[in-house]
Write a structure and sequence with these properties.
467 residues, alpha/beta, five-stranded parallel beta sheet, two-stranded antiparallel sheet, 16 helices, flat
Length: 467
């Protein structure tokens, strides 16, 4: 859930976001002095263009690439790796742009390497400084806000943990009040537990509480009305973060819509600028893959044509983003004299040609789907698109089945690398595949996509169920 802290970024995070482009620009200039002995004034204009492009991309994309994740309570590698990858992605986008305009030959690879290393060191150093300054101020009592959490269900506990893990926000949970049937959630050693709401107002004043977070379920309307009455004369900020974790939905993100605070229940994480980043990555990846696999594509096409009569490419209608129908492309792996039906391929299926069995086992029959990605119908990573007949069948059997289509279907996905690839001959198998797909949609990140692509390369191209 995107909580209130995320909606009002801390000054330190804003400082980092404003300072990162400046640090990267300075690192690029320093790299020029190391490589060429001068700044960009004595070099071709592509260096200046790339410097400013990368700084702009860093400002726009770093928040979506995880460059501002908290340091507290995490291993050093868990912080440095996302930061290093974020900077690498930004730099590669600029290099790809230079390639598109035929400027790559004018760039020094050694300068790019120097810039990457110096830029990464500058980014790490800035975060270390900010972290130490924050800790110093907190220890001196100059930076911090005391908080009471009313309602300690899953949402309340998650907010408490985020306050601990994100110290630069300066929140300190001083006390909690348990909601109904939540007594088992409290353990000794946690903040003070308020026995009654009747003492809430006096406690807020006596302990200089800066904020009260209301994380009660929406069903406790009477309690919320009572709290409004109890806090009416209290000079403190009151934040309402409804506990909606018991609702089966894709998203719990709070936004402003036409001036009203709104919870998006069905909007996937892959939206807005993040969707643009994913789309750009997909198109670049697909274009590179088609160039790399071009000899393989030609060889398979010739082999399919020579070994069995019929077209080389098999096309079938599938559901895409938000139910839009598109034609999915695959190398034909079955005989051409069989009717199109919804029956999934099985072990020793007589419909599959000898060559088709090899293609399906190794997933080489899926290679033409990179064209689907270039056309914008599919993504590299996402839920696998099913036959239209399967959609009609399982949308009635599985409650969350159609939510898979709130994102673009993918060539590979979270379900596939977790063993749910190929035949789903029981409802339980399909239910598990859908469960993995929904998990991917709820928890999407750019790094999760890279992880899935990496694992697909290692183990996802073949498997026991691939036939």
């Amino acid at each position: 859930m995107q909580d209130s802290m995320d909606r009002s970024p801390a000054k330190i995070e804003l400082t980092l976001r404003a300072g990162d482009p400046i640090l990267l620009w300075a690192a690029g200039i320093l790299a020029c002095y190391i490589r060429f002995g001068s700044d960009t004034g004595d070099l071709t204009s592509v260096y200046d263009i790339l410097l400013y492009l990368e700084c702009l991309l860093a400002y726009l994309l770093f928040p979506n690439l995880g460059a501002y994740k908290a340091w507290h309570g995490r291993r050093l590698d868990a912080v440095l790796i996302p930061l290093a990858l974020s900077w690498a992605v930004i730099l590669l986008i600029g290099v790809f742009a230079s390639f598109a305009f035929h400027f790559t030959s004018k760039l020094s690879r050694l300068w790019l390497a120097y810039w990457y290393i110096l830029g990464l060191l500058a980014l790490v150093a800035s975060r270390l400084v900010c972290f130490e300054v924050t800790r110093f101020l907190r220890n001196k009592g100059l930076y911090g806000k005391k908080v009471i959490i009313i309602g300690y269900g899953k949402t309340g506990q998650e907010l408490h943990q985020r306050a601990i893990d994100n110290p630069w926000y300066g929140y300190e949970v001083s006390a909690i009040f348990l909601g109904q049937d939540q007594s088992s959630q409290y353990e000794r050693g946690q903040p003070e537990m308020l026995a009654s709401l009747d003492t809430l107002g006096s406690y807020v004043q006596a302990n200089q509480i800066a904020e009260v977070w209301l994380t009660l379920p929406l069903s406790e309307v009477e309690q919320l009305i009572r709290l409004r009455q109890l806090l009416r004369n209290t000079l403190t900020d009151v934040r309402l973060i409804p506990d909606v974790d018991h609702v089966e939905i894709l998203s719990k993100k709070m936004v402003h819509f036409l001036g009203y605070p709104t919870i998006d229940l069905n909007r996937p994480e892959i939206a807005g600028l993040q969707a643009v980043v994913k789309e750009l990555f997909d198109r670049l990846f697909a274009a590179v893959a088609l160039v790399v696999f071009c000899p393989v594509l030609v060889g398979i096409a010739i082999a399919v044509k020579l070994t069995s009569p019929g077209p080389v490419i098999f096309r079938q209608r599938r559901l895409g983003l938000n139910g839009r129908i598109f034609n999915l492309y695959k190398f034909r792996s079955m005989r051409n004299d069989i009717p199109d039906n919804a029956m999934q391929a099985t072990s020793d299926d007589p419909r599959i040609t000898p060559l088709g069995r090899i293609l399906r086992r190794t997933s080489l029959d899926e290679l033409p789907q990179f064209f689907n990605v270039l056309l914008g119908d599919m993504s590299i990573v996402g839920p696998r698109p099913h036959a239209m007949q399967h959609n009609e069948l399982y949308m009635q059997k599985l409650d969350l089945y159609m939510l898979r289509h709130r994102v673009k279907p993918g060539i590979t996905g979270w379900a596939q690398i977790n063993g749910y690839r190929g035949e789903t001959d029981t409802d339980d198998k399909m239910a598990m595949r859908v469960q993995y797909d929904i998990h991917y949609i709820k928890n999407w990140s750019f790094w999760l996509d890279l992880k899935i692509i990496l694992l697909t390369g290692i183990k996802g191209w073949s498997g026991a169920n691939a036939y």
